[in-house]
């Protein structure tokens, strides 16, 4: 206490010696070592309780703080059988579930297994049994390729193609099995179409993808034929699926709605089938509509059917005046109502008639001959029992045509009895036309009753099989024609010969034309046709892509065939081997394929193999004209989107995607529905991420309308070479011919020259100086060598020809206005001063200089923008056609034809509309006409956009429609902005000083 007093004054202030105030001491008061020992080594007995001291550590042993265990481990608490996770707080994103639910992706109405393809997984469960034993039909396919038939079922939207194939499947299968597959039998009220496998197809009630089905079916004589039919979608947007199917097929079955007749897509598929050299057959479907909907009398129904057959023939003859005619009496036309389950040809009906009637009355005529007399001007005189060409020649009055007498009249009786009579009377009427039904069948509702009665009357669809057997060539017969058309290699070698003979012992050659994704969208099976050799499960093969050529084998890969399948729509039969002359679904080879592919054997013998030509869509416009820019909502998911885009490319034959210089991913498609389906698949099926899309835009083209005002020259950076060119417009007809692939520059110069002289009236000199087309092999721009031998050394020029062509093609690929492709431009090389030393005239000098020279010649030749134009077909009731005019004119469209459809209540209009104005037109039209009008559109041509794209005096006002004269400028500026380019084309950047001067002088 006394000490304390000395340390403080009377006011309590400290006055003692200075204190040591180091932080260290304050924060961590020093402790004796003994203290530490006391605390850690000799804890209170209470603390020790419950502690797990390893190996029963002695009480006084030192345990470091970090080694202490205060709580029992999870394992001790829950036991060995419980798996525990200790997760740090916030380590996982908030929206990410700790235990993610198992996702089972299944986009088809079959399958459901997430690991294997729908086709393969269901092939193991084998859900259906065929009437013809599978082993027997496989052995037929193996040993008798001449019995095989492969056709594409094509036609306009909703003309009943899928129902027709369903009918074939239903007939080929044991009924109980067919109903088990999930497709309700039509007589049970119809249901999901069996051959529309995707859920999206069922939801949209339309086919989106083609579906191959192989069935063994008997013809009228009872002989079985393995038939492969590919059910194609009917919407014009999915024309590419029909194109792909036709590449593999030997023939087409064109399906036409009996009421609608020939429509836009019908014309497109017929034209394409003819360009592919396929055999054409016809099915007129939905003939029940003539009776039930239009309520036509039998004679009018006959004229309506005849009109449909005639219009198909007229269209075919307009393309090729020598083409074989389609007529029911020849057997290449069938009639059907897939809704009511029957399909017949006149011959199959004749056979059926003979089977049921008293043959003693008609002994002299074979069923085939009788069938021939069941169409056209054939009248059976009831008294003499002889066929006459006119009703007037018959001894009795009012004799009807045989088709009406024998087929339509009984059919009308069946319909009226089933729809209007009591079961008892109905039974009596039906017995009158030789149809005997059980009493429970007679009590059914209208549709199953009609179905049962018609099936009893017409029997099975053997007429269809007859039609294919007699009018479509087998793979063996068609090999020479088909291989000659689609194979790009020589036919003289071992591979060529084997394919021509359809030799199953020869080297393996398969053309894969279409990829089908598995039910979970992860893997693809590839459908194609075996041209020679045989393919086995486990076989190692070489897959040649579309980019493969003799000089560039980058697009070739090795793969192992994991499964060989025979497709049957919702399931497939796995086989160990399949031989030439068959259509096959392969698994395990899709890895490197982007569109189509050629499969060859591995080994030296296959080195001579070349690819089968890629698909050609020129009737659909060649290139898709609509595009969408896509980007993932979360930028980190870009790789997923890129992978999804790759799969989209596989799944949609015509779609393309491209990365613009700005890094933007652009998807190309041929219509709104097409792009909508692509976006659905991309988002849900192939990437599973959220994707942002831009407003749709269209692909423009650039062209010239005059000849360059000056000779444009450009000097290479080293000043040693100078190239002079001019541009001028190309004849439109020639442009189309090149695009259709009619001009082949690989032929000798003389032959090519003669072609230009003869067809386009060119002079001899220019005709022989065509160097190349651009940007691609079938691009509608031409490069001509117009240099004079007296001025330019042709030898030196020849040495830089490749570089000049590359520069030209580059310029054509991305034009100077807004980097869109150039179209319809003829570039003439007038002069070339070239360095003597080869090193001075290398590609690095020449290629960009040529591009610059072409650009400058292009810009001095009144460059213009071109836009794609759709051809429209609008189908609507006749009384509302006037309402459509203002809708079209508001969108710069115009109608070129408007005529009522014969024998129906609606009109069909033909119109043109710029693609860029067509967005939302369909919705507009439907809203405006209360859904009574339907519109189909396909790319038709490119047309000049009104206005001068380079007129910088035009001021564009945002959110205001530009006057028509400003459109070219508007499109140019908007396209450039989108691509990250400056608003104005810096014209002078492409001109050399001399050219600028001469331009100023002009
Ligand atoms: N009245 C009648 N309707 C039919 C007939 N066949 C099919 N339909 C109906 O026509 C619609 C289209 O049938 P689908 O078989 O899907 O036609 P599709 O040609 O495959 O259609 P897409 O492939 O989408 O072009 C369905 O509503 C069918 O019920 C028929 O013979 N008569
Ligand atoms: Mg369909």
TrEMBL record:
Key words of the record: GTP-binding, mRNA processing, mRNA splicing, Nucleotide-binding, Nucleus
The organism's place on the tree of life at top rank: Eukaryota
Any one Gene Ontology BP term: mRNA splicing, via spliceosome
Ranges for domain Tr-type G: 146-364
Bias type Acidic residues, positions: 20-37
Region span, Disordered: 1-53
One cellular-component annotation, GO: U2-type catalytic step 2 spliceosome
InterPro entries hit by this protein: EFG_III/V (IPR035647), EFG_V-like (IPR000640), EFTu-like_2 (IPR004161), EFTUD2_N (IPR031950), P-loop_NTPase (IPR027417), Ribosomal_Su5_D2-typ_SF (IPR020568), Ribsml_uS5_D2-typ_fold_subgr (IPR014721), T_Tr_GTP-bd_dom (IPR000795)
PROSITE patterns: G_TR_2
Compartment(s) of residence: Nucleus; Plastid, Chloroplast
Main subcellular location: nucleus
GO MF terms, alphabetically ordered: GTP binding; GTPase activity; U5 snRNA binding
Pfam families: EFG_C, EFG_IV, EFTUD2, GTP_EFTU, GTP_EFTU_D2
SMART domains: EFG_C, EFG_IV
Protein's UniProt name: Tr-type G domain-containing protein
Natural source organism: Triparma retinervis
